[in-house]
Amino acid sequence: MKNQALLLLICLMAGSLITSCRKDNKQDNNEKAAISNDVLAQIKAKGFSTQHVHPVNGGYLVEGDIFLSTNDLSKKATYNKVRVAKTEQYSTNNLVSALPRTITVRVVNLGSAFVQGTDLAIQRYNALGLRIQFRRITSGTADMTIQGFNEGPSGGYITLGSSGFPTDAGDPFNLIQMNTNPAAYGSSPNVQYVGSVIQHEMGHCIGMRHTDYMDRSYSCGGDPVDEGDGGVGAVYLPGTPSDPDPDSWMLSCSNGGNRTFNSNDIIALNYLYQ
């Protein structure tokens, strides 16, 4: 998803791998020089690209928007994919289990646009009739908390939000963070835009990776970057189209507007959770 004014990368990552949504994917040469060959080898072994690797607090940011902690780099990664024609929707090895299941969601200390955006995302998921349902609560401990942080642009990037993958125990990732800085969503955030980003982040929390992992330039522009597939095969879904899929809710980059599930997204979610 590409904005003519800005490239807004929508995120990914997993379990203890935290993802952040960012603009652009430039890399500073000084940062690259500070990364050892051993670390680059570990990143490659996990199935991720070694282009545009940035050292950050506690780990490394890869492919512009994926956080890998130093601890997670030493663990073996295995990913299951769901193939949808020339674009691929695929999941992490960990999915939400103990189905059917209602996942509670609580919005903490965020403005009305984020609350309404959460309700919009929940409505869209629940309308699919999956064995996963979502319900927003206003008190108590939720399965998934949505909270804010305030971080302006830095080094040509701005983080829109972050999330992770399901745990080894089959629970959804429990935290979505949304950037409240005006540079991220403006001083008066659009509910449909915010809701679309939350919807995307919820997709990561239940195990979805980016649709265009094989070529991030498809939605982000710039040079082709392959996120890697973790070295596993793909499960083709019969009946899906053979043409590019421009409207998926799990594309790497956002156009800053409203985006929900397309027909292929629904096929992928039904395959995993119906």
UniProtKB/TrEMBL annotation:
Superkingdom in the source lineage: Bacteria
InterPro entries named among the record's database cross-references: MetalloPept_cat_dom_sf, Peptidase_M10/M27/M57
GO biological process: one example: proteolysis
Keyword check for Protease: yes
GO molecular function term, any single one: metallopeptidase activity
Gene3D superfamilies referenced in this protein's UniProt entry, alphabetically: Collagenase (Catalytic Domain)
SUPFAM superfamilies, alphabetized: Metalloproteases ('zincins'), catalytic domain
UniProt keyword annotations, A-Z: Hydrolase, Protease
Name under which the protein is recorded: Protease
Organism from which the protein derives: Chitinophaga flava
